[in-house]
Amino acid sequence: MKVLFVNPSCLDPRVTDPDALQVPIGLYYLASGLLDQGFVSGILNLAPAGPANPSAKGSDEKALDLFTQSVMQEQPDIIGFSVTSPTRINAMACADKARQILPDTLIVFGGPGATFMADFLFDACPALDVIVKGEGEISTAKLVNAAKRVKNRFGTIHQAQAIQPDLVQDLRQIPGIVFRNGPSRHDTGQPELVKNLDTLPHPSRYFTYQHLAMSRGCPGKCTFCGSPKFWGTSLIRRHSPQWLFEEIEALAQKGVTHFFISDDTFTMDCDAVTELCEKIIQADLGITWNAISRVDYIDERILGPMRRAGCIQISFGIESGAEPIKKILSKPIDNDTCVAAFDKVCAAGILPRAYFIYGSPGETDATIQDSIDLMIRLGPLSTVFYMLVTFPGTALYNRALRKGWTHDGVWQKNIEDLPWWELDPDLDFARVKGWGDRLRQAFFDHLEDFVNRITLHPDKASAPLHADFLSRLAMTFSHGEYARDERVRNAEQIAVNLFEKALQFYPCPRAFQGLAMIYQKQKNFPKAMAFLDKGLSHFPKNKDLCVCMGVCLMNIGDFHNALTYFTPFAQDPALGQYISICKQKTTPS
Ligand code: B12
Ligand code: SF4
After folding, report:
1. Which residue CA neighbors atom 6 of ligand 2 most closely?
2. N or C, which terminus of the chain has less Cβ within 10 Å?
């Protein structure tokens, strides 16, 4: 029995956001569970293939071609698609294609998009056989075992006639699925949940990946979010710190150096987070990671361990600074709590990132000003501003359905999501877009001030980590996202200030290198080399510093000395060109 899991591509090209092209964590769990049971299972990631033509929305031929090739080659008995609202169109196109190529393959959809759009998907996609709702491990294992028992009889499930009664009996025993039976459908109710997440296999045994989650579920009930209904709010389960540590350690041993911890509210359980961090610190894994949390779950005591364990960024959904909007979005966290959390996180040397939503029901110029005022108090060093959109499974979508503002049939169109302003008669695109522009403008107008306001804990032990934090941030201004963004004013000067501030805390190779690169770009080679000299006096074997020094020396025509800096790293093919130029220049003709 061969099972192929597929991560379909989104409608919009997301080429600039590599994070969004990753395979969902759930597929790693599902595939590992089946591999552990002896089934043949793999994952096909269509996301990087994306829409063939970025300008033509919904054009996904490239992803479809890749899928067709894989299916012809693999000949899977079951194909399971992880579906979100933005990936449903590609999932349906692939399902239709699979049905043409392999008429008897069982086609299964799961994930948040499938869970809340079952009726629509069965109507719109004749090739679809089964939807697995919510958490998938137990239902999927049962489904695959049932498929194994009745192999070759699943071919009837998607045909016009009803399937055999004994097969129906089998499927009815599986909780949490909806399956097609000729013209009708059966829904078996809620899925059975994994009581102890540690009983799940370690996906790292089979796969290498960066997104991890310790918990399932969130205490929040935000009206724009699918999590409360998908995972439930009362029974939040989590892996033990030991289980997650083993997963991180195994992945680090496979070469993963940066992780995205994707729990909805990672810092929910203070003791568990502290225990995990202590284990990472003790093992000295040399990793970095980002996390997501809520401002009302930030206990100052965990920030030190988190930072020492490699946490470099925490994202918070701030959403709005206006009380009435927070109420509508069901995120009743007062602004002072938001500010306190941002201050603590930044003081620990962790970059606080703020998510804001605009275009909510009841939004006005005044509520946007409230958000701007709150943002200025928070001083976020990174922001994401989202126009409010809605998906099935959220309270807001249900509200729009009740008001008759939309219906499930809209998902037939090539749209990724439903912007709220399109539904709400009190809003229009021009105003909503204008609000987004105002928020972004305000952020860029104040960014330099936010950087200048950074106040780090003065304790001596944190000095190396503070230097790391400041130099990392400096790099975004000198060579990263902010360096490329025209809206950021004084980017290079901000970078210089940050690198210098980093060095006041502790000698940091990135800061020496960053300053040298800035002066090298300005053709001020003596100044660049002075910083490199200082850096190399602390870190004589640091490759980046050596290479940078070599390049500076080449620029001033000292090829002989340049070669001495490149030679220790001669095995790196990227340096081959430099080395051969230096050799040419130093070989007497
Ligand atoms: C981390 C995360 C991301 C990360 C990483 C995603 C990744 N590749 O792992 C990033 C930042 C990339 C991201 C991007 C986006 N995300 Co996101 N994301 C999440 C988040 C917070 C956690 C996902 C997670 O890891 N869950 C834990 C694992 C174990 O669960 P899982 O992957 O869902 O899989 C389980 C089940 O779903 C099911 N299952 C899943 N697939 C399949 C397939 C089969 C065949 C079967 C049988 C079962 C099954 O079984 C799995 C095991 O139990 C969720 C919210 C949440 N808590 O679920 C939102 C969420 C999934 N994201 C959402 C959205 C909207 C997006 C974006 C569109 C945002 C944007 N505007 O750019 C993009 C697009 C992503 C895409 N390809 O569609 C929505 C989806 C809503 C919807 N109805 O579709 C969610 C639910 C949040 C919300 N707003 O409500 N996301
Ligand atoms: S938006 Fe965040 S806090 Fe709110 S319910 Fe969703 S995951 Fe929880």
Report:
1. 225
2. C
